[in-house]
Amino acid sequence: MLLTVFVCYNLINGRGNRHAENKRHDFLDFWHNITNHSLYRHHSYNYHYYSHKANIPFQRKKGNIMNEVLKLENVKKYYSASTNITKAVDGISFEVKEGEFVAIMGASGSGKTTLLNCISTIDNVTSGHIYVGDKDITKIKEDDMADFRKENLGFIFQDFNLLDTLSIEENISLSLIINNEDPNKVDERVENIASKLGIKDVLNKFPYEVSGGQKQRCACARALINQPKLILADEPTGALDSKSSRMLLETMEDMNKNLKATILMVTHDSFSASFCKRVLFLKDGKIFNEIIRANKTRKEFFDEIIDVLTLLGGDEGSVK
Ligand SMILES: Nc1ncnc2c1ncn2[C@@H]1O[C@H](COP(=O)(O)OP(=O)(O)OP(=O)(O)O)[C@@H](O)[C@H]1O
Ligand SMILES: [Mg+2]
């Protein structure tokens, strides 16, 4: 069986030929549907695969296959006090492509939150450029920031920030209602996302009436409802026990795989990072290393993360 699959795959695997490319994807779709596995071996091919699934037009630019959702160019954020300068972020450049799930790790004080705050437009950069889609967010005027955030970014906060006086449904739909979206469309979207995340039955309840896991999934649904280009999460499992952490991470993994959400997550926790497809390590405001999960199991990736943390100068416990 495997041999037959391999032969078929190679027969239709043409290079530089769009028709052959489409046929190759049809085959991979078919294979994925019957086995729930991708044949791709290299991580970048996974982007290609997911882009095809999401009907995102191909972009072939210097070997990049997927659209860039986020691009940082030599970003610096310095804090100056009277006598000294803290280089919290010191010349960071990287990209996140559509469909990625990326973790940022590093020791306490390495610049993770500062970097995330710059990306989420909560903080200004000292120099450099940050593009979300094709928009340079370092150039957005103060008055337009809130709209930009609402339209392009989703947030998952450490304590989830659900409003206790609103139902789960209202918590999820709040940003759409503020944006004056058509109420029928709002209902449809909330139902759709709630059923995908398994919280349809609790939509009419209030946060204090649902379980911790259901609250987490409500927070995820709220981050997703605007179909943001990018979801940002700062230590989302920081306040959770291990069972709740796993549930949240599985939900985020599901959002990434099945709902095509692009996620950038700051975490000090190797277990959380091992759910991602790629991990960037910060040290003293710079990128120290980057590792890619590709076809590794989560356990193998977890071990690799621990190895890098050890290289970074301490065991996992010291990297907070
Ligand atoms: N508002 C500020 N003013 C001055 N220095 C700051 C400010 N915010 C952060 N810093 C400094 O910038 C550096 C990076 O801080 P940041 O909060 O980004 O670290 P972090 O990696 O998120 O750490 P942790 O894991 O402890 O949350 C630290 O040295 C911190 O003291
Ligand atoms: Mg922090």
CATH class of the largest domain: Alpha Beta
Task: State the domain count.
Answer: 2
Q: Beta-sheet strand percentage?
A: 15-25%
Low-confidence stretches: 1-65, 315-320
Going by CATH, what is the homologous superfamily of the largest domain?
P-loop containing nucleotide triphosphate hydrolases
The count of helical stretches stands at 11
Which helices and strands, and how do they pair?
Layout: H1 2-11, H2 18-35, H3 43-53, E1 68-80, E2 85-97, E3 101-106, H4 112-119, E4 127-132, E5 135-136, H5 142-152, E6 153-156, H6 168-178, H7 183-196, H8 212-224, E7 230-234, H9 242-258, E8 263-266, H10 270-273, E9 278-283, E10 286-292, H11 298-311
Parallel strand pairs: 3-8, 3-9, 6-7, 7-8
Antiparallel strand pairs: 1-2, 1-4, 4-5, 9-10
Compact summary:
With 320 residues, this protein is an alpha/beta fold. It has helices at 2-11, 18-35, 43-53, 112-119, 142-152, 168-178, 183-196, 212-224, 242-258, 270-273, 298-311, and strands spanning 68-80, 85-97, 101-106, 127-132, 135-136, 153-156, 230-234, 263-266, 278-283, 286-292.
Please explain how this structure is put together.
The structure is a single chain. With 320 residues, this protein is of the alpha/beta class. The protein has two domains: 2-39, no CATH class; 68-318, P-loop containing nucleotide triphosphate hydrolases (Rossmann fold, 3-Layer(aba) Sandwich). It is built from eleven helices and ten strands. The protein has helices spanning 2-11, 18-35, 43-53, 112-119, 142-152, 168-178, 183-196, 212-224, 242-258, 270-273, 298-311, and strands spanning 68-80, 85-97, 101-106, 127-132, 135-136, 153-156, 230-234, 263-266, 278-283, 286-292. Strands 6-7-8-3-9-10 form a six-stranded mixed sheet, with helices on both faces. Strands 2-1-4-5 form a four-stranded antiparallel sheet, with helices on one face. Strand 4 (127-132) and strand 5 (135-136) form a beta hairpin. Residues 1-65 and 315-320 have low confidence and may be disordered. It binds adenosine-5'-triphosphate and magnesium ion. Adenosine-5'-triphosphate (ATP) binds at residues 79, 86, 88, 106, 108-114, 268, 320.
